[in-house]
Design a protein that fits this description.
The chain is mainly beta and about 90 residues long. The protein is built from one helix and six strands.
Length: about 90
């Protein structure tokens, strides 16, 4: 159901997953990224220290040039992502 919802909102939809404790260094995207968590947990850390905790069913929109990093939870995670139209 989440994938169908995402495909109705975004283009270039893809899935990805990570193991427990994996991290993503600080980076940004040149487009609006839409993410749904489908399994496990992942926390996105925004510049300034704000933290967005994602669990299954949670949705996050990252505007272009939003610097962020991420930390995967203890059970790993799986997400679906896509690009929102400009």
């Amino acid at each position: 159901m989440i994938e169908a919802t995402l495909r109705g909102e975004a283009r270039d939809v893809y899935g990805w997953s990570n193991g427990p404790g994996d991290t993503y260094g600080e980076h940004e995207h040149g487009y609006t990224k839409l993410l749904y968590c489908t399994r496990g947990s992942i926390d996105f850390v925004l510049v300034g220290g704000d933290r967005v905790a994602m669990r299954p069913g949670d949705r996050l929109v990252l505007s272009p040039a939003t610097r962020h990093s991420a930390v995967v939870g203890p059970e790993g995670c799986a997400c679906l992502a896509g690009t929102l139209p400009a």
